[in-house]
Each structure stands twice: as C-alpha cells, then as structure tokens.
UniProtKB/TrEMBL annotation:
Protein name per its UniProtKB record: 3-dehydroshikimate dehydratase
Pathway: Aromatic compound metabolism; 3,4-dihydroxybenzoate biosynthesis
EC number assigned by the record: 4.2.1.118
Annotated VOC domain residues: 449-598
Binding site for a divalent metal cation: E134, D165, Q191, E239
GO molecular function, one term: 3-dehydroshikimate dehydratase activity
Binding site residues for Mg(2+): H452, H530, E607
C-alpha cells in the first residue's frame, strides 16, 4: 500500500523532516500547516522539494471549526478555506483535512453541518480539490466516525469524504466494525496511530502520547481488517503526536515509523491469510492489496551466549567475579583474545581483542555487555528479516575455519547474533575455542540457564527498543510498570516470546540517579544492566556464592519483618531467606525466589532466580528493595 506520514510526527524543520521521510523510503507526506507556515520555502518550493525527493503530497491539514457555525462566520470560514485552496494548488496537495468543530458554542444541527460541508466541497471541487472530514474524539458535536459519516452522507458531494483516524476511534472504544458499511469511494483518507492504554483526558492523550503501530496497545490489525474489507485502497498514513518523538533526532524516529508500518502490513497480511479458509472475502483482498511480506520471525529458543567487552584489567576482574559465581573458565579463542566461561547452559564470553568490535565498544562505554547470542531455528532467516525491515546487519572479522554467525546491529549499537540449531549441533563453540576439557562445565553454584536480561534505555530510545524487540525478535510487551527507586521512578516493560524462552525487561528512567539511570549514563546510552540466571536450588546457590566471596546485595531486616504481613509464609523458610538475603514473591501462578550480586563497576549486576510452578513475573514488587540497596551503596 502507499505509505505516508504526517510531518507533525517528527522533529526538525520542514526541510529536515522531508529529507528524513524520503530517506526512510516513505511514498508520501501529509503536510501539517504549522510546518509550512514556519518554513522559509514557498509552497511551490516545497512542492518541488517533495518532487525532487520522490515524495507525494497526499494531504494538507488541519482545517478547524468549519462546521455548525452561524451564517456570518460561515462566510468568513469559506473565505479562509479559499485561501487554503489557493495555497494547496500551489503546493500540489489534492486533499484538505477538516476536523470536526470543537467549539462549545457551535450549532449542533446535522442538517446545517451537512449543508455547510456541501458548500465547502463545492468550492474545493472548483479547483479539483477534495475534502476529508475527520471526527476528533473531543469534537463538540461530531466525535464518532459514524456521526461524521452521517454528515458526509447527508452532504452528498463527490468531493467530500471521510478521514478515518485510528486514534479517535479506538481511544473512545468505538466499534470499528461499522466502517465496513461505508462505501469505499467515501473513505478518502486513513490516519494510523497506536497509543498506550491511559485513563486521562482524550485530547491530552492524543496530543502527547500517541505512538507508532506496535508501540502501544491498540488493536490496529483488527481495525485495518475492517478498513480493508470496506474496500479502502488509499494511503496508510501515520499521524502521531508524541512529546518524546518531537524532541528526538528525526532520522531514528522516521526509521521506526517506517518499520512500524511494514510490521503492521505484515500482521494484516497474516490475519487475512488466516481468514481465507472461512471467509470468502479474504482471498480477493490478499490478491488485490499489496502488503509487505518479509521472512518469517525467528523462533527464538533462549540465550545461547552473552559477550562482554573489557580491557585487560576489567577482563581479569570480571573473570574472577565469574569464577566466584561458579563459572568455569572452559576455553580460549583460537585466534582472538576472548575467554569462555560456562556453567550449566550459560555461556559467557569475555572479549578484549584489540581492534575488534568489542574493543571499540569498550572504548566508548567501558566494561559492558556488547553482544547477545540467541538460539534460533534459522539464523540467516532472522537476519534476512531484520534487513527487510532496514535493520543493519553485522559481519565481524572471522579467522579461517571460524564459525560465521549471522548478526544484526541492535538499537543500543550492540550486536545480536542468531545461532541456528544447525550451528549448535555442529558444536560452534569448539570450532572457535580451544576447550580445556571435553566434559560439559560443572554447575558449581547450581546455575542452569539465562532466565532474563534487563536493558536500560535512554528516554528517547525506549519506543525504538520496544519496536525492535517486537519486530525483529518476535517478543510481545507485557504491561509496563512503574517502580520506585529512591532517586526517581523507573518504568519497566517486560517483553517475552511465546514459550517464555526469551525474556527481556526494558527499563527507562527520567532521573540520572536511579540504578537504571546511572547505568545508562555509565554506558553512554542504553545497554544490558542486569543478567538473571536461573538456579534449581536458590538456597544452595546463595550458600555457594556467600562462601565464594561474591558481594551480594544486603536486604534490610524490615523487608523480612514485613514479608509475613504480605504472605502466609513458613517461619523456617523466612529465616533462611533472611540469613541469605533471598527475596520472595508469589501470585496465583506460583512463587519466585531471587537475590542479587552487587554492581560491577556501576554498570551491570547478576541476579539468581528460582521460579516455582508457573510463576511468569520478575519479582517486580521487590525491585524497589533492590534499588534502595543499590542506591545506599552508591551514596556510601
Ligand atoms: O489534535 C488535533 O488537533 C488534531 C489535528 C488533526 C488531526 O488529524 C488529528 O487527529 C488531531
Ligand atoms: Mg487525525
């Protein structure tokens, strides 16, 4: 389908916006009036600039408070409209968006509204222009699409049709199924926005918190199914008002916008294809409408390895810390300065190879997690999919006979390797590393696998991260939570795949002094700040680590005094938890035990967890205890 975006979505001057939009490969734009008014380019020059960039101008907007006014005002409104029509002819924009009137003093008479919209359409028709009428969710009289359609139907003018905007429809909880009853030739334009669920004034929600499809919680696939069944074949145009996007560098935002649209198309295509066996209308739609068709998402089967970027000194310190955590030093890379540590199914690589990607990463960020290896069905397909969505691929230097692992560049500039089952079966570790021992590593501290990882994000990258994890890794966001760090709130959103084999928590904080904020600062941007490892016996693990001298996080006595007030809990168990600093959570699904190591150079730390029954959370209620303990250390 034709892919379009409103200039209001992104930051910059109009010229900068157009340049970014073209670079991201959009077909067309909606020109927002303010962007034009504040531009030094004349309408003709803007038209030329768009033509040079290969961008169509599909819509000019908005025109406000036209409908339901008295005669004198209507005359003035028509004069105002004539000026805009002149401008649109210069600009080469074929359609004007008219928002439903929001003035409390307007005349709420459908017949009058229809007559006035008819008169306006007649004027537009004289210049070959069209009018798309949009119900704002906070319109005074017209605020539902069905009502806007009623006005358009009554007005009955070929140059007047509807603009549907997913935000105005879905924010109110209106049923989009009725769209199917509207004749296709009256659906002039379609604006798409997602949003997080919020309970607030709908105007504020719309003007500040909209986001791109896939970044929020609206059912846009279901919405689009109705729109396409109605026969709409015009542009899919993103219209997002968002405070963070207005401030973020526009190139990144525009790439995200395009990625979100491709992803939406893919989901629509899958939905329509799934309908084919039961719905006779579905097949002709899939044949008529061109929808993005990338390689299928990877089947991720957990974390294969994690790679740390270090220098000599921090590498030695980290190696020591890992051994204290019960890891064995199992191998040394054949040609590079990379050490392999293993315990259970967990493989950690510590890289200080000069001139490598890791060393570059270290130069910029200090000791940090620079790469993640994910176990997948087909690594090359995973990378091909990323590339189809314009995510850059990564190919490192490899020595003779070393394993080539397909990889992508992640949002924080780290690398994600996709380790195919075939590569795993071939024993890719032994290909690259001289292993000390043929036996699998012992599980000294009872650690078995990676349970989850947590990444800190700078504020303006959070939505980028959500989209990346969703599109490229096939993760779904769970409900986002606000956690109280003594130095500020941290918003945390867990993303998981269908079988829970990959869980990533995304954390973001306005404050630089929270644990999340500090590590984001120390890492000069986002990055993994926390690796949670599962144990089959958390108490045995805690005993082992306490003895081996790993610095564990202190938990205040008050926490344990409070636990019996929150949970029915066995005295002996409580005593054990208190002695070893183990935290506890329980819900209907099961129980969760966990404890934390102290921070490694203010950047990352480890957590050891044990899940019982079907507990699928992350012990979020205990996060503030952890963050307080970490804050105390930072202050001391
Ligand atoms: O917030 C607004 O005023 C506004 C303007 C134009 C639109 O298309 C819209 O959806 C909202
Ligand atoms: Mg709109």
């Amino acid at each position: 389908m034709r892919r379009s975006i409103a200039t209001v979505c992104i930051s910059g001057t109009l010229e900068e916006k157009l340049e970014s939009i073209a670079r991201a490969r959009f077909d067309a734009v909606e020109i927002f009036e303010n962007d034009l008014i504040y531009s030094r380019l004349s309408p003709r020059e803007i038209r030329q600039r768009c033509a040079d960039l290969g961008l169509g101008i599909d819509l000019y907007q908005p025109f406000r408070d036209m409908d339901g006014v008295d005669e004198a005002r209507f005359k003035r409104n028509l004069d105002r409209a004539e000026r805009k029509f002149d401008l649109m002819v210069e600009l080469g924009a074929p359609m004007l968006l008219v928002c439903s009137n929001v003035q409390p003093g307007m005349i709420c008479d459908d017949a009058l509204l229809a007559a006035q919209m008819h008169a306006m359409a007649e004027k537009a028709a004289e210049r070959g222009l069209r009018i798309a009428y949009e119900a704002l969710a906070w319109g005074h009289h017209v605020n539902r699409y069905e009502h806007a359609w009623e006005i358009v139907r009554k007005a009955d003018h070929p140059h007047l049709g509807l603009c549907l905007d997913s935000f105005h429809i879905l924010s109110r909880g209106d049923d989009p199924a009725g769209i199917e009853q509207i004749p296709a030739e009256k659906l002039f334009f379609l604006q798409l926005a997602d949003a997080p669920r919020m309970v607030m004034d709908v105007l504020q929600w719309s003007r500040h918190y909209r986001c791109f499809p896939g970044q929020g919680t609206f059912d846009l696939v279901g919405f689009m199914e109705h729109v396409l069944k109605a026969g709409y074949a015009g542009p899919l145009s993103l219209e997002v008002f968002n405070d963070i996007f207005r401030a973020a560098p526009n190139r990144r935002t525009t790439l995200d916008a395009f990625e979100s649209l491709l992803f939406l198309e893919e989901q629509i295509r899958r939905r329509l294809e799934s309908r084919i066996p039961t719905d006779p209308a579905a097949r002709p739609l899939t044949e008529r409408i061109e929808l993005f068709n990338p390689p299928a998402p990877p089947e991720v089967r957990g974390v294969s390895f994690i790679e740390f970027a270090v220098d000599d000194a921090s590498g030695k310190a980290l190696g020591k810390a890992l051994q204290a955590l019960g890891f064995d030093h199992t191998g040394t890379h054949r040609t590079k300065s990379v050490q392999l540590f293993q315990q259970g199914d967990v493989r950690l690589m510590v890289n200080n190879e000069p001139g490598s990607f890791a060393s570059d990463y270290f130069q910029r960020r200090g000791p940090s997690i620079c790469a993640l290896g994910l176990a997948t069905d087909d690594g090359q397909r995973a990378v091909n999919r990323g590339v189809a969505f314009h995510v850059p691929s990564y190919a490192g230097r490899i020595g003779p006979n070393e394993a080539l692992i397909p990889a992508l560049r992640a949002v924080d500039d780290s690398i994600i390797y996709f380790v195919s089952q075939a590569l795993e079966d071939k024993g890719f570790l032994a290909t690259d590393f001289v292993m000390k021992d043929a036996k699998p590593a012992a599980s000294r501290a009872g650690i078995e696998r990676v349970d989850h990882i947590a990444q800190g994000y700078p504020f303006e990258q959070f939505d980028t991260g959500v989209l990346f994890n969703r599109v490229v890794l096939g993760l779904k966001p769970q409900e986002s939570m606000e956690l109280a760090d003594p130095n500020g709130l941290v918003r945390s959103c867990a993303m998981v795949n269908a079988d829970q084999s990959l869980r990533i928590a995304l954390n973001v904080s306005h404050s630089r002094s929270t644990v999340s904020g500090r590590s984001t600062e120390a890492l000069q941007g986002g990055g993994v700040h926390h690796i949670a490892l599962s144990s089959s016996d958390i108490f045995a693990s805690a005993e082992y680590l306490a003895k081996s001298g790993v610095g564990l996080l202190d938990v205040p006595d008050n926490y344990y005094d409070d636990l019996p007030a929150r949970f029915d809990i066995d005295e002996a168990l409580l005593k054990r938890m208190r002695r070893l600093g183990v935290l506890y959570d329980r819900n209907d699904e099961g129980a969760f035990f966990h404890f934390y190591t102290q921070m490694f150079v203010d950047r990352f730390f480890f957590e050891i967890v044990q899940r019982s029954d079907a507990y699928a959370g992350f012990g979020a209620s205990n996060a503030p205890v952890r963050m307080s303990a970490q804050a105390v250390r930072a202050a001391g």
